[in-house]
Design goal:
Layout: H1 3-23, E1 29-30, E2 36-37, H2 42-46, H3 54-62, H4 82-87, H5 103-114, E3 119-126, H6 136-147, E4 153-155, E5 167-172, E6 176-179, E7 198-202, E8 212-217, E9 228-235, E10 240-246, E11 249-257, E12 260-267, E13 274-280, E14 285-293, E15 297-304, H7 318-328, E16 332-336, H8 347-364, E17 370-373, E18 379-382, E19 385-388, H9 392-405, E20 409-411, H10 413-416, H11 422-427, H12 443-469
Parallel strand pairs: 3-15, 3-16, 16-17, 17-20
Antiparallel strand pairs: 1-2, 4-14, 5-8, 6-7, 7-14, 8-13, 9-12, 9-14, 10-11, 10-13, 18-19
């Protein structure tokens, strides 16, 4: 194409954008439910952002402490007070007829603490807000410190992200990872992804070279202290083998795994610093997850699904999910979703769709309590300021109503952090509690909200203990 034609094309596109920005309503266009389309105004397209004057910048730089004083920052943003947020426990909400929902889980904790029961488990599902063990890590640490246990729990064989503080990982062989959430690979003609919504494809051994997963554990951390390793897998034929080499010494080979789902269960009671797991699956197979555990105490699994809305469980193979859940035997399930659907989905539709997921868990894990953790505040830029997404409270309400109607609990993260426009207050603390995307927490912020949830859970436990003592 000639340069003149290219210039004319781009000029036409620019003129079209200017025309759309001039004609598009400032308040946006509603397209059903809570969804609203908006477009940059003409002034935003052709003028520089002058909302931050030099005086404003000086004011921001001087407001360098977490405070309750409205004068310490811009009038419309009061920095969050982390200490106060931790002290003011925001209660878990229950349906009026189901205030004792968590009692079976609390009885399990008492039995673990007294030695009458060996172990318990919490499955923590969520979207990118919990990715890479965010939020889960602190909940796990608190639970294991108070009720015993070590290890990081379930992890992907081929991780979705790098940087685990519990271990370093290496692979040998042509491993591949597939997820049911996000963009799915159209070449996969089954829906057996396990409860983590993902699997690693095990390479077929070549000659005597078995594909290997190697781990070097950070034993200075509680989550890096491992006594038991469980591999949840699926072989395509009978006769699979899995070998474990610990601390550069041969330990054991588990043989004779059948065609279909199985679990390779390996225990090692001395300090486990390094482990090499070698796989001889003659025609290949799938690994749904690997769990690094202790023999007793509490395990807390981080099952993050980037970009997920929490609506995939009823779409995946029930058989592979049920098989894993039967082996894991969770005592409590946490579902933390909603943020990814705020700008796009009708709250009415989301309530119905999410309720179907809750009923799925009620069927596959009968009697096991579920707590739905609502979305955090999220902010969008409007007229030079960041304000809460218009549809956020509708999505929060949809999750709350779905949880109550299903007989489960709901913890309102949005209200716990301060409600409307609170994300801006998290961004403007010093040090910041949220990133400048006004969606995700910083490490300090995610630890704060994890502590807030843990305090809410333990308040229910303390009241359970008081009631038990007064019987």
């Amino acid at each position: 194409m000639k340069p003149l034609r290219i210039f004319i094309f781009f000029l036409a596109v620019l003129l079209l954008l200017l025309l759309v920005s001039f004609l598009f309503p400032k308040q946006g266009i509603g397209v059903g439910g809570d969804l609203r389309l908006s477009f940059m105004s003409l002034s935003e397209l052709i003028h520089e952002d002058t909302t931050a004057t030099l005086a404003d910048i000086d004011h921001l730089l001087t407001a360098s402490s977490v405070t309750d004083d409205p004068e310490a920052f811009e009038a419309h943003v009061i920095p969050a007070n982390a200490d106060r947020l931790k002290q003011e426990v925001h209660r878990i909400q229950f349906a009026e007829t189901n205030a004792s929902l968590l009692y079976p889980f609390f009885r399990n904790l008492d039995q673990i603490a007294s030695g009458r029961k060996r172990s318990g488990r919490i499955l923590h599902f969520g979207d990118s807000q919990i990715e890479n063990d965010r939020m889960t890590a602190l909940i796990r640490y608190r639970m294991q410190r108070n009720f015993g246990g070590t290890g990081s729990g379930l992890v992907q064989a081929i991780p979705l992200y790098s940087g685990s503080l519990s271990y370093q990982q290496e692979e040998s062989g042509a491993w591949l990872r597939y997820t049911y959430f996000g963009k799915r690979d159209s070449t996969i003609n089954h829906k057996s992804y396990g409860i983590m919504g993902a699997f690693a494809s095990v390479p077929i051994p070549e000659d005597d070279a078995w594909p290997i997963l190697s781990y070097h554990f950070n034993t200075s951390r509680r989550s890096g202290q491992v006594q038991r390793i469980r591999v949840f897998m699926h072989s395509y034929v009978d006769g699979a083998s899995v070998a474990f080499q610990v601390n550069n010494e041969f330990s054991d080979t588990l043989r004779g795994f059948p065609d279909g789902f199985s679990v390779a269960d390996f225990s090692h009671f001395e300090e486990l610093r390094e482990v090499r797991i070698s796989f001889n699956l003659p025609e290949g197979g799938r690994i749904y997850g690997i769990s690094f555990e202790s023999e007793g105490g509490v395990q807390v699994d981080n099952i993050a699904m980037r970009g997920g809305s929490g609506l995939i469980f009823t779409s995946m193979s029930r058989l592979s999910q049920q098989a894993m859940l039967n082996q894991l035997s969770p005592g409590l399930i946490l579902l933390q979703y909603g943020g990814n659907v705020v700008p796009y989905m009708s709250s009415t539709y989301y309530r119905r769709a999410f309720k179907r997921q809750l009923l799925f868990f009620k069927e596959v894990c009968p009697g096991i309590p579920v707590i739905v953790i609502g979305p955090s505040d999220m902010a969008v830029r409007e007229d030079g300021h960041f304000i809460s997404y218009p549809g956020l409270e509708g999505i929060r309400d949809a999750l709350r109503d779905a949880a109550r109607e299903s007989g489960f609990g709901f913890w309102d993260l949005y209200e716990a952090m301060g409600g409307h426009n609170s994300m801006a207050s998290f961004v403007h603390t010093d040090p910041p509690l949220a990133s400048t995307d006004y969606v995700h927490f910083t490490n300090l912020g995610v630890n704060l909200v994890a502590e807030m949830f843990y305090n809410a859970l333990m308040l229910e436990y303390e009241e359970f203990e008081i009631q038990k003592a007064n019987r």
